[in-house]
Amino acid sequence: MIWQVYITWLVILGDGLATTWILYVHSSTSVAHVALLLTALVCLTYYLAIVKPAGWAPSAEGSRTLDAPTCQKCRRYKPIRAHHCKKCGNCVLRMDHHCPWTDNCVGVANYGYFSRFLVAVELATGYLIYQDCLLIHGIYASRNVPMNVFDWTRMEFAVLLCVSVTSAFVFMTVGLMTYRTLVNAAQNITTIESWELERVRSQVTRGILAPSAALFPYDLGISRNLKEVYGESVFSWLFGSTNRDGVSFSLRPGSSPDPWPPQDPFEVSTDPYYSDMKTKREVLYNYYKKDQWLNDDGENIADFGVDLSTE
Ligand SMILES: [Zn+2]
Ligand SMILES: [Zn+2]
């Protein structure tokens, strides 16, 4: 295990159990029980997000033959939407990103587990913050009562402030990630692909790629997208994962059967326009190279765990 995982366990258990204790002492037993239950839910979903495999690509050395290139590093098939993860050392199907906080890749097989962990964190911290606010409001309301009637010890008060700040911080930071994860699922796009899409759109704006390149081919409409990512039934949404194999994908009507994103014309086209651009406009050519380009959030594709030498 890496340090991020220890830190996460420490925050989940520390924040959850300390708040539960404060609620036992200063709120009702049922409120404390709900806090404890939500903490347990976060622990369970976190454990599953760590241990559930992301979905490794099939080995190219087995009997199975696939119409997909072979990765030079792990000797597995590398179908569309798969990437070689630098941390895991394998090609991951429909790779979303490598998450340092779960020390696991997020891919086709565990996207649901990862999403449920994030949602559980938001539910739990949302509830804890609400209860913390009620307690703080109660303390404020009793600010004029004599000190000998005031039933909070310094220690309890310090713990309340500590857990309130921690819960609020976690709620906001994980909230951004949760939003991004769910919105991406609704569009059937991975974190890596949304980075690619930004890059492609920028190239379209510059006239380097045709406008059709910016049409994301796996977006099948919200309802179909969510079923592709999380599975067909309510059961799979709540407990399981998608039944997709991560090797072949449905395309939206009218989209090109060619792999997306399109290869950079600088690299593949024989058109003199591009070879000219490669030499005369070297700055622009370098700007869009996969190992150079940064999206609006300043992220490079390597930030998601992708091994650039295999792209
Ligand atoms: Zn690989
Ligand atoms: Zn990985």
End-to-end separation: 28 Å
Structural class: mainly alpha
Which overall shape is indicated by the principal axes computed on the Cα atoms? elongated
Q: Which ions, cofactors or small ligands are bound in this entry?
A: zinc ion
Sheet with most strands:
2 strands, antiparallel
In sequence order, what are the helices and strands, one letter per element?
Answer: HHEEEEHHHHHHHH
Low-confidence stretches: none
Radius of gyration: 24 Å
Overall average pLDDT:
93
Q: In what order do the strands lie side by side in the largest sheet?
A: 1-2
Helix content: 40-55%
Number of H- or I-type helical stretches: 10
Question: In what range is the share of β-strand residues?
Answer: under 5%
Number of E-state strands = 4
- The quaternary structure here is single chain
Pfam families: DHHC (PF01529)
Catalytic activity: L-cysteinyl-[protein] + hexadecanoyl-CoA = S-hexadecanoyl-L-cysteinyl-[protein] + CoA
GO molecular function, one term: protein-cysteine S-palmitoyltransferase activity
InterPro entries: Palmitoyltrfase_DHHC, PFA4/ZDH16/20/ERF2-like
